[in-house]
Design a protein that fits this description.
Elements: H1 3-29, H2 33-36, H3 54-82
């Protein structure tokens, strides 16, 4: 197995573990929703109508995070492209034999 394949497998396992964890948290919280629902919205904040909804806030911040990662990726690829040799493995020359 190559290093790239190992990294890909690790990434897939990490994402799978995160999803399983997310699903477990949702399943754990779900039974409490009917009990807590009457309290949602009881707290009044001044200017609350000016704030985004929780869904809007999550969408906005995750979209921003995606844009930041995309920008950082583009920047990093530009740097790598400045040094074409960085895209290839180093060639190790055998040591010359002393006479």
């Amino acid at each position: 197995m190559t290093v790239s394949q190992t990294m890909t497998k690790f990434q897939e396992q990490t994402l799978s573990a995160l999803k399983a964890e997310d699903d477990a948290v949702v399943a754990m919280v779900k039974p409490f929703v009917p009990m807590l629902e009457p309290f949602v919205g009881m707290v009044r904040m001044p200017f609350a109508e000016e704030f985004p909804t929780p869904r809007e806030a999550v969408e906005q911040w995750f979209d921003f995070a995606i844009d930041v990662l995309r920008t950082r990726k583009d920047f990093t690829l530009k740097l790598i492209n400045l040094f074409p040799a960085m895209g290839r493995p180093a060639v190790v020359k055998p040591a010359s034999k002393a006479a």
